[in-house]
Amino acid sequence: MNDDAPAVRRRRGSELEAAILRATWEELGAVGYMNLTMEGVADRARTGKQVLYRRWRNRAELVLAAMRSRVVSIADDVPDTGELRGDVLAVLDRMARRYDDVGPDVVHGLMAEARDLDPVFFSIMTGVMETILRRAADRGEIRPGAVGRRITTLPADLLRHEMLLTSAPVPESTLVEIVDDVFLPLVNSRAGRRR
Amino acid sequence: MNDDAPAVRRRRGSELEAAILRATWEELGAVGYMNLTMEGVADRARTGKQVLYRRWRNRAELVLAAMRSRVVSIADDVPDTGELRGDVLAVLDRMARRYDDVGPDVVHGLMAEARDLDPVFFSIMTGVMETILRRAADRGEIRPGAVGRRITTLPADLLRHEMLLTSAPVPESTLVEIVDDVFLPLVNSRAGRRR
DNA sequence: CGAATAAGAGACGCCCTGTCTCTAATGCCG
DNA sequence: CGGCATTAGAGACAGGGCGTCTCTTATTCG
Fold this sequence. Notes:
- The structure is a homodimer.
- Chain A is about 65% helix and about 0% strand.
- Chain A is mainly alpha-helical.
- Chain A folds into two domains: about 15-70, Homeodomain-like (Arc Repressor Mutant, subunit A), CATH 1.10.10; about 75-190, Tetracycline Repressor, domain 2.
- The first copy, chain A, is elongated, with a radius of gyration of 22 Å.
- Chains A and B meet through helix 6, helix 9 and helix 10 of A and helix 6, helix 9 and helix 10 of B.
- The first copy, chain A, binds a DNA duplex through helix 2 and helix 3.
């Protein structure tokens, strides 16, 4: 008889970690953030709670890790349509679709529980918009340095506000409104904001 | 012997309700939203959990009721400084101070747990801004109907976004930025947004 | 006054947290 | 290749809150 063969196979290290993050993502989809428990994730991943607590201090950190393992950063592929309006619309659209994937439930839950997700999560859009505006300036569409920080982040800020409040998918028309009625008029105003 | 005198006095109806809401508010200040429990409130109000559950279905509803019992609506006293800029700054300042009273903890918690506080809570500012803009139009400061819905709510939306993300008190300079760099330029742009 | 109502008090089962324990699978290093 | 350090998997544990239920009795209304 072969008594040397292990009764069960044990995962370790990154293999186990990946399995847990996958289980977290599935659990998130199955029960939502509010009803997600460490026990539920551990069961789904066929492991014990201790293994989870060894890696993440709490639910918020676990879910954040699960999201990061899924997400390709918006910053990695900045739209380049050859026109400022098209670029901004494209990047807002990506934001909106990303949010639909994650769900308002998760975002609200994380904001309530995680005390510091601002830097990584919300400041990404600043860099993306700066790239878009620099390209527009290179093209001669706008004057370099004509757009201050507040206006730079304005489209993303307004969309984020919309998403946080409504919890329903943001329609395309809202994106157009943000760009055509708010952002572009400010960029094109002859005053040329500086701050 | 006076055996007819009740051993303990029992509060009822609105008297009891007021005591519970007061206790909820105190508990909120003492332990914050995340650590607020129905048991904690019941103990502080010297009553039983059942009495709470008879009136509110859960923590979110209880806290909402406690807030409503405290708050004088911003809509009840719209600023009137005689100038559009001053009015908008004043109303933003009230919003910001109101938020400081309540605390980011409570707002984030409520947004995560209460599934429908948009209507009552967030649409108030629309009416306030419409009043302010109407007065400005009457004064001849702006053209009547020159400001569309999106621009009307823009100052409040941007401030709210700021408050939801930063969790620190919003400085006066941010309010000025919102009004001078975003709102007023759009209102004064000769295009005069319509939508 | 008598009946209906609801407060106060406590117990209950359930679930989840976060920690601790133990055994045995795994991978590393000599 | 074999022994050892690591750590996964499994389960128990106390602690605490939820939401419901029960019981007694103060209060109010008709």
